[in-house]
SELS protein (Oreocharis arfaki), 178 residues
Amino acid sequence: MELGGGGAAAGPGPALGRSGLEALQQTVGSVLSSYGWYILLAAVAVYVLVQKLCKLFPHFLEPDVVVRRQEALAAARLRMQEELNAQAERYKEKQRQLEEEKRRQKIAMWESMQEGKSYKGNLKLNQQEVESGASASTVPKSKANKKPLRGGGYNPLSGEGGGTCSWRPGRRGPSAGG
């Protein structure tokens, strides 16, 4: 059976194709004879690895699972953004209230100055009112029961009463090196 299909009239074309095919077969044969076992073992290892990965991660191959996971992720991000927006709104409202309180204090201070009263006294009264409202919920701590950390005669510069640690200045004059 001839590949050229024609005998002597076919010309040099089929002879060139036949020699090229033989060269290809010879090259492939030599590569397979030299590295055939290595190629076979590598193919088997890749096949086993793909099978293990498909068992461990089946959700990568199912598009429905991927779509559901992405939708859940988008919903969680939306909830977090809504919470953040609500916190920002509460913070803005608190800042507005603080600014309004400061503005009221400034107005009260200005009015007291216009009347010739001391504005510092009014400011102290306003702060005491705010503190009294805040201290009603907390229990004040008494400082009378606390002991002092050191005795009354302690002076760190004198070197007395401090314990074992004391600092002495170094020798004056040039060093004794030579």
